[in-house]
Amino acid sequence: MTPDTPIHAVPLFRFSVIWKRKKFIIRSGVYFAVMAFVLFLLMPWQTHYEAMVRIEPELSTTGEVTSIEAEMDVIQSWATVSQAVRQMGRTVNIMPMGSAPLLHLGYYLDWLAGFFSGNPIANFSSYQPSIHLDYFALPENEAPYLNHSFLLEAGKDGAYTLYGPSGKPLLDGKVGEIAKASLDSEGKQELRMLVSAMTARPGNSFSITPVAFDIYTKKLQNALKVERKGFRERSGLMDIGFSSIDPVLAQQFLSVLVNAYVLQAYDRSSLGKIEGLAKLEAQSQILQQQMADAEKTLAEFKDKNQIVDLHQEQEYAYKRSLEVQDELQKTTTKYKELSTSLTDSHPSMVALHQRMDFLQGEADQLKASLESMPQKERQVNDLQSSVTIAKAMLDQNTALAAQLHAEVETITGYAHLISLHLDEKFSPVLRGLLAIILGFATGAMLALSWLIRNTSPAFARVRYAEDLSAVAPLPVVVRLPFQWSGWRWVWYRYRDKNTVSTAQEWVKKSIGEIERLEQEIPILLQPPANKTLLFTSIEDHQGVTFCARQLAIASARTHRTALIDANVMQPGLHHEFLCAPSPGLADILIGRAMLKDALQPTDTPNLSVLPAGNPTPNFRLLSNAERMKALLTELAPMFERIIIEFPVLTPSICQEGVLGTFDAVFVVVNRDAPLRKLAATLESCNVTAHKAAFFVLNKR
Q1: Nearest to 464 by CA among 241, 671, 683, 633
Q2: How far, in Å, CA of 224 to CA of 422, rounded?
Q3: pTM of this prediction?
Q4: Rounded to an integer, what distance in angstroms lies between the CA atom of residue 485 and that of residue 500?
Q5: Separation CA 565–CA 447 (nearest Å)
Q6: Nearest Cα to 689, choosing from 669, 660, 668?
Q7: Angle at CA 576, nearest 5°, toward 542 and 544?
Q8: How many CB atoms lie within 10 A of CB 156?
Q9: What is the pLDDT of residues 628-675, one digit of tens each?
Q10: Three-class SS string for 225-258?
C-alpha cells in the first residue's frame, strides 16, 4: 500500500464474502427453525371459535330502513361482557400444564395416521385437555387467594385432585359432583367447586387462578374480535371471534355472549312496541263491547218505535254536518295562528275568513235540516252516530295493532345467531410447517444481518477479507489454525482444513506451521538477508510471543539462534525459558549493562535469550535505530540467526526508521483484528516500504 492510499477505501463490503459463508446463514436458519418447532410443541395452542350473527334492518312506521349501526357497539360493551361472565359463573383462568409437548406430538402422529388412512381425527379442540369449571367458591376472605394458582390433576374415570398454592392437597372430587373442603383447622372457611366436564387423560394438570371479576371481564373483552360487514346495506353479517387455550371456555363464553347480545338487541328495539301492542289488544276488546252495546241499543229503539231506517237524505245531512264541523274547526285554528303575524286585509286572511263564513253557513243549514226531523228520527240518528263512532275507533285500533304486530315480527328476526363453529384455518401439519418456515427465515435474516454488519467498512475484520492485498501488498506466509471453542464451535464451525476446537490441538498444529516457516525462510530470504527476523503486531495479545519463541526453538536445531525480548513495556519471554528478568535489553540500550552479562543460555541447545530487562515506558529506547543497529552488529558474529519479539507498532516507535535495521518483519494478526486499524497502522509505520515484510495469521 502506498502512503497516499485512502484508509477508508480499504475495508470494503463484498457480496462474495457473504456468499462464501452461505452455509453459516443456512445453518443459522436451521437452528432457529428447530427452536421454533420445539417452542411450537411446548406452547399451548389457541382454540379459536367464531360466531356469525345475521343483521337485518329495522323498519320504521313509515316503511323506511332505520340505521342500526349504533346497535353493534353493545357486543363489546362492558355490561354485555360482564353479563356473560356472570352467567358463566367464572372468575378464574384455566390453563393446561405439563403435558403440552407430548400432547401435541401425539396429536401430530394421530393426525398424520388419520390423514394417510383416510380417517382424519377430530379437531384439536376436542383432543386438547380442558375442563369445564362451573363453580369455584373461595372463602369470604378471598383476597389471599386472588392471583395465586391452584393445581388440578386429572385422575381416572373423571376423578381429580385439587392442590392449594402451597402444594398441599385440598380436596378430591369427581366430574358432575360438588366437592367441598375446609381451609383452616376449625373448618370455618370452606372451598367448593364443581367440574361439569373434563377432557383430560390421567395425570394431566391444570392451573386454576382466581382473579378479580373486573380484571377477568376486561381480559375477555380484550380477547374479542368483532368484524362488521354490510351495515350500510339492507342486511349484513357480523363475525365475532374469541380465542382461548381452553376450548370449552371459548365455546361457552362466545355462545353466552352472542345470546346476550341478540336478547338485548331484541329487547331494546321491540319491547316498547310489544307493550303497545298488548295495550291495543286490550283496548280492542273494550271497543268491540262498546260497539256491540251501541248496536243493541239502536236495534231495540228501532224495534220499539217501529222504525226501519233513516232516509238517505237525513243520513247524508248528518254525516255532512260532522265533516263540516271538523273542517270549520281546522280552518278557525289556522285563522287564529295567522292572525298573529298577518293583518285582516292580507289575501290569505281574507280567503280564510271567506271560507269560514261559507262553512258556517253550510253548518247552519244542516243544523236546521236536522232539527226539522221528527223527534224519534233524531234519536235514531244519535244512536246511529254512536255506532258509527264506535266502529271507527275499533277499525283504527285494529289497523294500528296490525302495523305494530308486523313491526314486532320484523324486529324479532333482525338479529339472530346463524352459526357458532370452530375456526381452525390451518391444519396441525400446516401450523408446524409455518413455525419451521418462520423460524428458518428469522435465523437466516439474523445471520445475514450479522454478516452484513461485520463486513461493513466500520466493522470489517481480517477473517472476512478475501485477500489481505487490499490492505497491504504483504504475503501471508503462516496461517495458524482457526480455533473455535465452546458453543461457538457448534454454531459457526468455520469449515477450514486448519480449523480446530481444542487448545491442545491448536498448539500442536501451530508448532508444525512455525517449523514449516523455519524451513521456508531460506527461500523467502536468501542468506545473509535472513539474519535478523522481527515479530510484531498492531494490537496486544496477538500471539507474537508464541510465534517468536517457537521459531527460535525450531531455528536452534540447525542454527545458533538468539531470541531478544524487545517488549520492554510488557516483558514475558523470561517466563517462557525460566531466565532472570534482568539485566536485559533495556539495561544495554541505556548503558547500564553489557551484552555478555545480559545474554542467557537456555535448556534448548544453540538457543540464547536476551530478556527485556527492567520494565520501562521509554519508547525511545526501541525507536533509536542507531542503538538497535549497534546491538545487532555486536550480536552478529555470535549467532547465525537473531529473532526479536517487538511490541505493538505505533508511529512513535517507528518514527526514526527502526524497522529498517531488521532483515524481515513478520506482522502477527488475529483474524478478529479490524481491517481499518490494520491498514492505518501499516500505513503510519510505513511497513509496506520494508524490503521484506510478511503477514502471520493467528488463531482467533
Answers
A1: 671
A2: 15
A3: 0.54
A4: 8
A5: 42
A6: 660
A7: 20
A8: 9
A9: 888 899 999 999 999 999 988 888 888 878 888 899 999 999 888 888
A10: EEEECCCCCCCEEEEEEEEECCHHHHHHHHHHHH
